[in-house]
Amino acid sequence: MITGSKLPHTGTTIFTVMSALANDLGAINLSQGFPDYDCDPQLVSLVNDAMKNGYNQYAPMAGWLPLREEIARKTEKLYGAVYHPDTEITITSGGTQAIFTAICAAIHPNDEVIVFEPAYDSYAPAIKLMGGTVKSLELEPPDYRIAWDMVKRLISNRTRMIILNSPHNPTATILSESDIEELAAIVKNRDILILSDEVYEHLVFDGQTHHSMARYPELRERSFIVGSFGKMFHTTGWKLGYCLAPAALTAEFRKLHQYTVFSVNTPMQVGVAEYLKNENVYNELAGFFQQKRDYFRDGLSQTRFRLLPCSGSYFQSVSYEHISDVKDTDYAIQITHEYGVASIPVSAFYSKGTDHKVLRFCFAKKQETLERAIERLIKL
Asked: Domain Aminotransferase class I/classII large: where (predicted)?
């Protein structure tokens, strides 16, 4: 018998609920963020080759070295940042494990962590498990911009970390150069770490720049940066990610990593390492997803929804406040039942359930899937 739950207020996530509802009703599932199309057959072939060639035992705890070397090469080429494969790059079982491990490595009881909401739902539970305190700052539609004056008010002598996510899930916003300047000024001469969730780093649209923490030496030296091959290569089920951090932070990260997953599946690391040698496989992602974004936005513009900005990620949020006063959780369920399209209510990303009457759709889907979803939503 288990008593005294460490997460007494945590239940089944809305993602599980909405996907299950979509499955039960035969609805089009635009709720969870995963593609409904296959990854590149060449990548599958490379992983199969690795299996056939005997790469089926434990990889090194920090990850397959050639993969870490390719990540270092990619990061330097994109952001001008040099990370040492031996001491500053760790392969993880997906981005979420990297996030959890970084928080567990850095946060002690009574430490405070600033989180911008709406926020990916794994941040707060990890902080609470470590005895830390979540200091939330709510962002508002349509632009969800960070009010840095408010951030300054949240800073105290117990502030240990600021968590950032750009491109952002669920709002599809990205950090600007002015955001970076404000952040750098706030953390300067303070013992504050940054956890930068950059799993959608290659999904930035309209020629805009991804402002990775790796670009800025004064931020890089205090940052855990999280990446995801699942998001990069349409293989979310492979659960393969990585964490970049300075050597001292990586040493602490690996202390926990070795006792959680220890190492990540070997043949996929071997296959991805070879696949990454072709820079086009990630450089062409923005164009690939921008085509889907443009098609989906054009279709949704024919519905009653009001489109919110979408600068990155593979999510599109819409406002329905002019259509209905129903709570977003109820409205998401309602349109799944009545119109056969599942979404995620954005209040699920706020700790207080703040309801701005906004839904999030995932457009990482086949063209025909998006077309069928649009046809149904036009009837709303």
From this structure: 28-377
Structural domain count, the chain: 2
Domain that holds residue 21: 14-32+284-377
Q: What kind and span of H or E run contains 276?
A: none
Write down the residue that tokens 């072939």 correspond to. 45
241 in a structural domain:
yes
pLDDT in tens, 260-293: 999 999 999 999 999 999 999 999 999 999 999 9
CATH number (domain holding residue 158): 3.40.640.10
Write out the DSSP string of 234-265.
T-GGG--EEEE--HHHHHHHHHHHHHHTSS--
pTM: 0.97
pLDDT tens figures, 244-264: 999 999 999 999 999 999 999
Are 98 and 157 within one domain?
yes
* DSSP H helical ranges for the chain: 14-25, 41-52, 65-79, 94-106, 123-129, 148-154, 177-187, 217-220, 229-233, 247-260, 266-275, 280-283, 285-300, 328-339, 367-377
Taking the C-alpha atoms of residue 304 and residue 320, their distance in angstroms, rounded to an integer, is: 8
Residue 71 burial (C-beta neighbours within 10 Å; 0-12, 13-18, 19+): buried
137 and 67 in a single domain? The answer is: yes
Q: Please check whether residue 44 lies inside any domain of the structure.
A: no
Q: Which residues contact 11 (CB under 8 A, 6 or more apart)?
A: none
